[in-house]
Amino acid sequence: MQVAVSDVVDADLDRWDAWRPDQVARLLAGVRAPWAVAAGWSIDLFLGGQRREHEDLEIAVPGDRFAEIGEAFPDCDFFLPLGDGSERLRRLDPAGELLATHHQTWARERSTGKWRLDVFREPFAEGLWVCRRDEALRLPYEEVILRTADGIPFQRPEITLLFKAKHARPRDDADLAAVLPALEPERRAWLAEWLQRIHPGHRWLARIRAP
Fold first, then answer.
1. Are residues 151 and 162 in the same domain?
2. For residues 77 and 8, what is the distance between their CA atoms, to the nearest angstrom?
């Protein structure tokens, strides 16, 4: 049964039944936009296997290339959080100014009413990735995206950790602990430098800089 599309809907987190990275990679196989699995799943892809349960799945794409992603999911409607303290979202089509203030875009499968994917519409400039926490920090996409052995693109773990540092919850601490032994010294130094710039004196810095 098709689910009716309203302009504003409740988040209804119990309706999350996220796809796995390999499923999304197959669905996006023909998309040329530089997309990558982000957040918690990107850590597991870097480490080579799923370490914990994931309630959702996030991918990142340059904001101006989002349409290419949306077209790959014809059975989905996309919604943006209202950002008003409520657990409501507005459908992408009439979202207006929300597009400029919210980077998350939830995909709801029309045939089931389930939330399947969260697409991050990331800042970009002159073909470069731009850090949404500090627009002075920019990188070529080939330095942002790694791939698994079977070709699934994922965000470099140090970039994921840079974003996770804002809240630094217990699961984020666990992700940091899991990644650091596998992170090359120059990547640890990069993470420490950018973390100090965005969150001066962050409690993770001593662990990242430790020999």
1. no
2. 12
